[in-house]
Amino acid sequence: MGQLERDASSVHLFNSTLETGIRALVVLEAFYPRCCDLMEMTWLDHLVVHTGDLDGQDVPESLHPDLPNRAGELLVRRQLVEKSLRLMQQVHLIDVIETEDGIVFGASEDAPSYLDLLQAPYSLALKERANWMADRFAGMQTAEMRAVIESRIGRWTADFRVEELPAENPK
């Protein structure tokens, strides 16, 4: 096997930092002018490709297959989303804003021009789902969004929140 083939086999295109960054950008543009924190972005990254996890008559079909044992998916996704947001910030497509409540992310003024270039069927379907989610969630406070998400995918968010629990003091 040649060097190029070995290098290509180690590249992960599905759920790569770049793919996740583009999804984050699509979501933030749909939610504009609302900014989202890392927790919200992690939830939204999951939901934009797994819209079928939500209730309602108008829920679009999920873009990605519903695989079994998805309980740990949000745990893995959080780090990937964080890296992807940094990548999109480096190329000036996402703004990072410090607020009294912490750091939030928003689509930059360059985001719409870039996203207009994405015309593949998958990209168009992703934009459609992000706009649908923005219609559903953009007006909600974080606590309201959390309640909706926990009611639908509570077992995943419960696992996700394990890292938020205070560490026990060793005796």
Report a brief summary of the structure:
This is ABC-three component system middle component 2. This protein has seven helices and two strands. It is mainly alpha-helical.
Low-pLDDT parts are: 1-13, 155-171
How many helices? The count is 7
| Main sheet makeup | 2 strands, antiparallel
Beta-strand content estimate: 5-15%
How many beta-strand elements? 2
**What's the SSE pattern?**
HHHHEEHHH
Structural class by SSE content: mainly alpha
Distance between the termini: 54 Å
**Mean pLDDT score:** 82
Q: Helicity level, as a percent range?
A: 40-55%
Radius of gyration: 17 Å
Shape: globular
Adjacency order of strands in the biggest sheet: 1-2
Integer count of domains? 1
Task: Please provide a written account of the structure.
- With 171 residues, the protein is mainly alpha-helical.
- It has one domain.
- Helices cover 55% and strands 7% of the residues.
- The protein has seven helices and two strands.
- It has helices spanning 3-9, 17-31, 38-49, 73-90, 111-116, 121-137, 142-160, and strands at 94-99, 102-107.
- The chain has a two-stranded antiparallel ribbon.
- It is globular.
- Residues 1-13 and 155-171 have low confidence and may be disordered.
Which features characterize this protein?
single chain; 171 residues; mainly alpha; two-stranded antiparallel sheet; 7 helices; disordered N terminus; disordered C terminus
SSE topology:
Elements: H1 3-9, H2 17-31, H3 38-49, H4 73-90, E1 94-99, E2 102-107, H5 111-116, H6 121-137, H7 142-160
Helix pairs in contact: 2-3, 2-4, 2-6, 3-4, 3-6
InterPro entries: ABC-3C_MC2
Pfam family, one: MC2
Protein name: ABC-three component system middle component 2
